[in-house]
From TrEMBL, chain B:
Pfam families named among the record's database cross-references: MetW
The organism's place on the tree of life at top rank: Bacteria
Name of the featured protein: Methionine biosynthesis protein MetW
Annotated CDD domains: AdoMet_MTases
Matches recorded under InterPro entries: Methionine_synth_MetW, SAM-dependent_MTases_sf
Amino acid sequence: MMSPAALSNVTLPADLSLDSGQALSGVSIAYEAYGALNAAKDNAILVCHALTGDQFVASEHPVTGKSGWWERMVGPGKPVDTDRFFVICANVIGSCMGSTGPASEASDGRPYAMRFPVITIRDMVRGLVGLLDVLGIERLHTAVGGSMGGMQVLSIAANFPERANRVLAIATTARHSAQNIAFHEVGRQAIMADPAWHNGDYYAAGAQPDAGLAVARMAAHITYLSEEGLTRKFGRRLQDRPDGSAGAKSFGFDADFQVESYLRYQGSGFTRRFDANSYLYITRAMDYFDLAEEHGGTLAEAFAGSKARFCIVSFDTDWLYPTSESRHIVHALNAAGAPVSFVELSAPYGHDSFLLDVPALDRVVKGFVG
Amino acid sequence: MAQSTPDFGLRPDLAVIARVIPDGSRVLDIGCGDGALMEALQAHKDCDVRGIEIDPDSVEKCVARGLSVVQGDADSDLAAYPKGSFDFVVLSQTLPMAKRPDLMLGELLRVGRQAFVSFPNFAHWRTRAALMFGGRMPVTRALPLTWYETRNIHHVTVDDFRELAREKGARIENSWFFAGEKPVGRGANLRAEFAVFQLTR
């Protein structure tokens, strides 16, 4: 975990009223911005990040040193062109890269930990809208996001219909399914079963629940990939031994297979940049997400007041948020009379396709953003 | 081409539709392909146009052109649209691909107040001749694909369509017939390669 002190952020002037009935005061929103806001303030694009994402959409991550998570999409001359647009990406509340979350200090000077209120996707969006207010942006040119970012942009369209002219939701859903919730529960239980979790009060302790968080990440990571993708990447190939000798079955429980080694690497790398309690809170927010439920049980009602143009994109190998979920959104938008485009793109990488090399996605994003 | 009959750079059946649809209409183009008609209606008629297209590559092209097109199957997806959502629904060259063209026609006139339906006429003399004298499934200018490649599963003639419209209680407001680029007057069932019908409930 890094200190968030060095990150650019704003403190929201008003308390944030939450769906739980609680309120957060002094909410900090950390964000990155690229390009320039024009005089009319009508060229702003908000990029919303996924569960474990952050504001570093097109710049180097301060902890990992890796390039931005969507640099193939956002930058000068890219489909989301920072030469033309003012692109904002903010860390959601509940997360751990500078926006207020469970690791932040409460009013008593100690970290919130499990005293942090349970938040929803709509609460995250309230935080983002608070940031737009501070930046003086009344209306976004486009709100775009994949996965949990897609949930946020749909939530903006439903709850703040006057704040975005275009809404682009990729590889996402309007509600978490039982299967989605089940996978998240495995992750949460892994964290809470780690003795170092200490009911969330581990910030001052020497040890953090890294083992639990790593297992949570490993389980989730499988859901981001397709079977075909895993087979193509790893098959049943064996991992070279740490001493450099060729891979062989150890007749033990080392990471014999490359896929095991890969998942362990993903899990341990993740603990260096992410807070376990944030993982609990954000997965909870996603599980609570049901856009229809918020609007009287009918998804079309959620979009009834919308004036935005929509584009919904799914991937044929995404079994986390499959195409049927996107179609469900599209049918609701049709019923609401909203202008909507929808395409299921073919890509081998599963849910993670939205982050990876899929040239058709670049063309769709570029065409829709205009 | 005379000033009074602009073709908007469209093939004849689509040009007719683009000419007839009034300014500012709400239009659904089913089987919109690469979006040529949609673009013309947006650019020249200030219409609010939506499309449905089954082929993902065509949908991607439409979205890249800034058009609102949904990848889907008209056989199943029209059900999601409320009654009377559109002033006009266009079904160009897609009717023979419908699972049940008769039910499709009913859906068109539920979703739209009016419908345009265009299709290749299977009773055109070339088609008849190919079958009569060649003894083989016709491969013609209007029906360029072999019987095993074509997605047309319900070939239809001008007279068949008139009969279907009558059975479904749809009123034929207008009709246009073409052989290649040229309009056809009388004897359409024999002489027309393509037909366009304008229907109301």
